[in-house]
């Protein structure tokens, strides 16, 4: 079958002279089992790159996947999920992607807000006036790029999300067109205003994941822009917000030193320090039920709650030391263990709002290796 006139229909898509949309899509809202939810989510994931359906609009639907693993497990459409489906249906009827222009380069821009930033692969047609059509939209949307609903890491910093988004977009454009982006736009909003070149350099120095992603790109392929192009879609979309403040010190502080430890047998959680005024050792001991990691985490949280001045934290748990070092402004993934989830949430809140510098280090107290 040869299609000579638009719209052309191919692989579930309907292509006009300039635009591209999925063919008429019937959304099944008669949800009864987990299998029905899987089919619905697969269908929506298929159209997302062309229609730009954000993750926060689909989250109530993805939450229906939780629970029993049997495909025959019963499911019902919640009120939040039904509202999400209504939004999706509206987007399907109004949004579209564009056919690519062979003479224009591809660009990428980071958009959205935490915890679900997203991006857009696009072309910018500066010759946006034609004799027969007059002035037309210069923005040609190729695809939207989204991160997975479930991340591999339990805690992820915003800078790491940006790096992951850029890496995914670079792989996608190479697969689609076998080229690299001419420009990557990072119109990031900061607490002190818009991102500047100097701030971008500082951001790269502070985060290895973002540094490796952007350094290799800028040296080989194209440029990095801190500006948004003038378009209503970019102005309407919430700018990605990030904080450059980093209160965690990379070296020990001349300040109060707090030691923490736990006992798996007695479930005792111990925090000890030398009072700088009396020079006497003080201790805070409580019982915490759960694994040693939970007990150690609870002890560290008590340290942040008790002290308001700068301090160095010494713990014998490398797990807890790593968690604390990543907690500032981190995005927390769903954790099945509710006690652990509440502790991690509390730690992230405390560290993100902490105003004094602190230093954290693990000790090798249970090995024969030399150490503190």
From TrEMBL:
Gene3D superfamilies assigned to the protein according to its UniProt record, in alphabetical order: 3.30.70.270, Ribonuclease H-like superfamily/Ribonuclease H
Transmembrane intervals: none
UniProt cross-references to PANTHER family, sorted A to Z: ENDOGENOUS RETROVIRUS GROUP K MEMBER POL PROTEIN, RNA-DIRECTED DNA POLYMERASE-RELATED
One function term, GO molecular function aspect: RNA-directed DNA polymerase activity
Domain of life: Eukaryota
PROSITE patterns: RNASE_H_1
RNase H type-1 domain mapped to chain residues: 252-372
Keywords of this entry: Endonuclease, Hydrolase, Nuclease, Nucleotidyltransferase, RNA-directed DNA polymerase, Transferase
Natural source organism: Motacilla alba (White wagtail)
Protein name according to UniProt: POK11 protein
Keyword check for Transferase: yes
């Amino acid at each position: 079958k040869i299609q000579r006139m638009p719209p052309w229909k191919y692989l579930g898509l309907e292509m006009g002279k300039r635009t591209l949309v999925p063919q008429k899509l019937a959304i099944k809202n008669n949800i009864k089992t987990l299998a029905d939810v899987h089919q619905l989510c697969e269908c929506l994931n298929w159209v997302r790159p062309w229609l730009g359906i954000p993750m926060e609009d689909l989250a109530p639907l993805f939450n229906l996947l939780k629970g029993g693993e049997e495909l025959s497990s019963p499911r019902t459409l919640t009120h939040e999920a039904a509202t999400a489906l209504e939004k999706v249906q509206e987007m399907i009827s109004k949004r579209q992607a564009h056919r690519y222009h062979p003479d224009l380069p591809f660009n990428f821009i980071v958009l959205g807000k935490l915890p679900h930033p997203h991006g857009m692969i696009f072309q910018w047609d500066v010759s946006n006036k034609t004799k027969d059509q007059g002035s037309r939209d210069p923005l040609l949307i190729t695809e939207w790029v989204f991160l997975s609903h479930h991340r591999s890491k339990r805690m992820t910093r915003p800078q790491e999300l940006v790096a992951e988004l850029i890496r995914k977009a670079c792989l996608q454009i190479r697969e689609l067109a076998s080229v690299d982006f001419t420009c990557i736009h990072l119109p990031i909003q900061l607490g002190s205003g818009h991102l500047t070149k100097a701030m971008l350099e500082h951001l790269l120095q502070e985060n290895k994941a973002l540094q490796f992603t952007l350094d290799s790109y800028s040296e080989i392929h194209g440029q990095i822009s801190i500006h948004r192009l003038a378009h209503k879609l970019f102005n309407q979309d919430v700018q990605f917000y990030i904080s450059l403040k980093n209160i965690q010190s990379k070296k020990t502080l001349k300040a109060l030193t707090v030691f923490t430890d736990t006992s798996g047998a007695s479930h005792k959680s111990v925090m000890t320090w030398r009072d700088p005024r009396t020079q006497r050792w003080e201790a805070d001991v409580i019982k915490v039920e759960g694994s040693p990691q939970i007990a150690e985490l609870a002890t560290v949280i008590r340290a942040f709650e008790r002290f308001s001045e700068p301090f160095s934290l010494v713990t014998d748990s490398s797990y807890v030391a790593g968690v604390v070092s990543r907690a500032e402004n981190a995005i927390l993934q769903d954790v099945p263990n509710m006690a652990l989830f509440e502790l991690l949430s509390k730690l992230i809140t405390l560290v993100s709002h902490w105003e004094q510098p602190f230093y954290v280090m693990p000790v090798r107290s249970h090995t024969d290796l030399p150490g503190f």
